[in-house]
Write the structure tokens for this entry.
Amino acid sequence: MIADIPGFASDFPAAMAYHRAALQSLQHGERKRTWVLKTPVYQMMIDLLWETYPDASVIMTHRDPVKTLPSGLSTLATVRWLRSDHVDLQEMHAYGGGLLLLMLMQREQAGTLPGKFAHVHFAALMKDPAATMEQLYADLGRPFGAAHADRIRDYLARKPKGKFGKHKYAPEEWGLDGARIRRDLEPYMEYYKVAREE
């Protein structure tokens, strides 16, 4: 977490070394398993991620940035409010401006991403979760059996979307302009064929 502590400087290599040691400690003595970790923060250090975990597969979920950018700022602000009396939303815009999406797109176009990189579209995932995951597994070269699809459908039947309420947010609530987001990130949306959400 990027902190507002005077004199604090982020040390991402040290953080990732600690990250690896923590996962190794948690897995010690257990059977070999695949870890599934979720955070957009890895976008900032994608090369370091693959240096730390050379066999990692990165899955990029594509969704309308008008939805994802305010959501990301909301999550980041919530974590910061847990640890601080003051959260500077303007300063946080540097982490939520979509620049990382464009940078990853350019690196993928140039073929300079050093590890396995797969894609999933949020709209497809919402429309048919099991089929979308089956395709994602195929893209990653992993097996996906009927039992996988059954578990996905069972999970969704027990926990439908919105069961515990809905987290509502709008770009304007976070000092963002939806029209500008669309304009700035049009190359990303066009390249990955990201569906607009209204």
Residues 12-192 form a domain with the Rossmann fold fold (CATH 3.40.50.300).
